[in-house]
Specification:
The protein is of the alpha/beta class. The protein has one domain (about 5-230): TIM Barrel (Alpha-Beta Barrel), CATH 3.20.20. Helices cover about 20% and strands about 25% of the residues. The chain has helices at about 20-35, 55-65, 125-135, 150-165, and strands at about 5-10, 40-50, 70-75, 85-90, 95-100, 100-105, 110-115, 140-145, 170-175, 195, 215-220, 230. The strands form 2 sheets. It has a 7-stranded mixed sheet with strand order 3-4-5-2-1-11-12, with helices on one face. A 5-stranded mixed sheet has the order 6-7-8-9-10, with helices on one face. Strand 1 (about 5-10), helix 1 and strand 2 form a beta-alpha-beta unit. The longest helix has 19 residues, at about 20-35. The chain starts with a strand and ends with a strand.
C-alpha cells in the first residue's frame, strides 16, 4: 500500500467541462502536493460528489475510451466494487476515481455520500438520509459552506452531530472557512474531519474542478469497498 494518499474529497465533473483540462489540473495539483511532502510513494484519489442531474462517473465507466481524453485509459477495480476505477495516462499519471453523490435535504443541508454508485433523492429530512447511509455502510460528510451552518441550519447540523452515530459520519472542512469566524459546531468533540478543497483556477483561468492537496494515511486495510482515509499526522 502506498505511504500517502492524496485526495480531493469533493469533486464535480460537469458535462460542459473539458475532461483533458480537468484530469490534467487534478494530476498537476495532487503531484505538487506529493512534492511538498517529499513523498516517495503515493496515490492520487478523486471522490466524485455528483448532484442528481450529473452522471460523470457513469459516463466514464460506460463510454470508457470515448469519454476519456486522448492518452488516458480506464481500468476497473473489481476489488473495490463498482464504485472505483483507475484512470491512467500514457505519460504516467494515475488517478483513482471513486463514485459518490451530493444530496440536499429538505432543510437545505448538504450531505455527501461517498464511495457509492447508489442514487438518492433530494428533499428528504437530513436525519433520515444519514440513517439510510449509516445502515448501508456508506460514509457521509456534512460539508461546511457560507451560511450553511448558521441560524436554523446551523442548529440542525449541531443536533445531527449529537444524535447520529459517529462511525461513518464526517465533517467537511475547507480552506475557505474563516478560521476566526464560523467554527464547526462540534469542534473538539472527537469527530473526524474530511478536508475539502477550495476552488483553484486551472489553465486558462477556467474553473472546472475543486482540487485540494492533502496527505491521508490509510486508516484501514482495503476490503470489498473503497475506504475512507484518515488525515495523516
Amino acid at each position: 500500500m502506498s505511504e500517502w494518499i492524496l485526495a480531493d474529497g469533493h469533486v464535480h465533473l460537469y458535462a460542459c467541462a473539458d475532461r483533458d483540462l480537468f484530469l490534467e489540473a487534478a494530476w498537476r495539483n495532487l503531484s505538487a502536493g506529493a512534492r511538498g511532502l517529499d513523498a516517495a510513494r503515493w496515490d492520487a484519489c478523486l471522490f466524485f460528489t455528483e448532484t442528481a442531474r450529473d452522471n460523470a462517473f457513469d459516463t466514464l465507466c460506460t463510454a470508457e475510451a470515448a469519454a476519456l481524453p486522448a492518452g488516458w485509459r480506464l481500468r476497473r477495480l473489481p476489488e473495490d466494487s463498482a464504485a472505483a476505477v483507475l484512470l491512467r495516462e500514457q505519460d504516467g499519471a494515475a488517478l483513482t476515481v471513486i463514485a459518490g453523490r451530493q444530496v440536499i435535504s429538505s432543510e437545505g443541508i448538504e450531505v455527501l455520500a461517498l464511495a457509492t454508485v447508489r442514487r438518492f433523492c433530494d428533499g428528504r429530512p437530513a436525519a433520515a438520509l444519514l440513517g439510510e447511509l449509516q445502515a448501508a455502510g456508506i460514509p457521509a460528510v456534512l460539508p461546511w459552506g457560507v451560511g450553511k451552518w448558521l441560524g436554523r441550519r446551523g442548529r440542525l447540523v449541531a443536533e445531527l452531530l449529537q444524535t447520529q452515530a459517529a462511525p461513518g459520519l464526517f465533517l467537511g472542512d475547507n480552506a475557505g472557512r474563516p478560521r476566526a469566524g464560523q467554527c464547526h459546531p462540534c469542534s473538539g468533540a472527537g469527530r473526524r474531519f474530511f478536508r475539502e478543497p477550495t476552488r483553484c483556477p486551472c489553465r486558462g483561468q477556467k474553473r472546472v474542478s475543486d482540487v485540494m492537496v492533502l496527505p491521508w494515511r490509510a486508516h484501514s486495510a482495503r476490503t470489498g469497498r473503497p475506504q475512507i482515509w484518515q488525515r495523516g499526522s
